[in-house]
Amino acid sequence: MTRVQSQKPLGRWTSTRPGGITVGVVVKIKGIHRVKRKQANGSIKVHYYAWRGGPAMLSQPGTEAFMAEHVRLKEKAGEFVRTVATLETLIAEFTGPEDDRNADFLALAESTRVDHLYAHTLILKEWPNLPIKLTQMRGFKGEIKKWHRSMRANPRKADKALFSLSKLFSYALGNERAEIDKNPCTGIERLYQGSRKEYLWSAEQIALVREKLEPHLLLPFEIALATGQRQGDILSLTWQQWDGIYLMFDQSKTGRKLKVKANSRLKAMLDELLPKNKDKLRVCLNSRSRPWTKDGFKTSWGKEVKTALKIGVTFHDLRGTFICERAREGSSIEDIARISGHSMAEVKSVLEKHYLATDQGLSDAVIARMEKNLSGTKTVNRL
Fold it and tell me: What is the DSSP letter of 353?
């Protein structure tokens, strides 16, 4: 998004003089906020707001209707109109109007956008109408820490809210907003320190799921276990993304395109289900043969796996299990990153911080490989 400070929008005032002569006066309207936004198709669209942080203008600039609309909005707001930029201003610039979202915001994964929008309500509840300039003053970082810690009962919620606030400042810095010269969230430590060390899927749990789950839940499970992909990308798979050997993924979170070869078990399942008309039909369907919704899958999975089978690990833990199994087999971080869609730094972080610190299997695998190498080495007799 690009802010434009020059070229003030114009309004036109017209009147009719005696004799039927119509005259017009072009007026520069003071206080209009003009913003250029790049659209999803690459084009540039200009948005006008009655004032910075104010409502969007719907009329065509340079017309009498535009000037009349501005006057009406100002009169409606009365003496309480705030022309200073606020945190709400940053949010409006980051997301764009509800009916015409900013392309940068739309580029984020749907789940990320939902998290941001919820966090924005928390931010505005804490700091309604707070001028941006005050966020740059000494001491505001301490206020952010207090707000963050006030949600300590739900640390993941607190950290998501902090991340969203930090994202607003980072976005404003990237667009060189005049009022922003620093991100006051920098350096504030997260509250959530949990890991998934103890939450790898065991061979016993995998066997139980394969025995008990219905086909409509078993297929997404097998795809996740065999490919290490995210739940949303698995549920959105179409038959056009299966060529009989490889599954092609379009990762919604990273934008990466991945080609993952199916193992023999998964290939047999897919070949058996393959419809005659591949077209755009979804691969994974619910019990009513309809495409899964995110909430529908979450509810069904929780009911069958967590409640009925009493399995404490989650669907997302299949991703970590995939990464660790490939590491146990001797795959490099680079190879795991290539097939999972993670960056190498992310794979290393997953292995070091979340799983491997207590993974005895990996430690044993190192010794097993060492013994295998030693057994193949000829002993040299020394005289």
Answer: I
347 by Cβ neighbours in 10 Å (0-12 / 13-18 / 19+) ranks as buried
- The DSSP annotation for 198-255 comes to T-PPPHHHHHHHHHHS-HHHHHHHHHHHHH---HHHHHT-BGGGB-SSEEEEE-TTT-
Gap between the Cα atoms of 331 and 305, Å rounded: 30
For the chain, which residues make up each domain, given as ranges? 1-82, 84-193, 203-368
Contact 169, 130 (CB under 8 A): no
pTM, entire model:
0.56
Listed in sequence order, the residues at least 6 apart from 283 whose beta carbon sits closer than 8 Å to its beta carbon are 219, 223, 237, 238, 239, 241, 242, 270, 273
pLDDT digits (tens, 9 = 90+) for 257-266: 899 999 999 9
Task: Residue 182: name the closest of 145, 133, 148, 143 by CA.
Answer: 133
CATH architecture of the domain covering 203-368: Orthogonal Bundle (1.10)
Average pLDDT over residues 242-251: 92
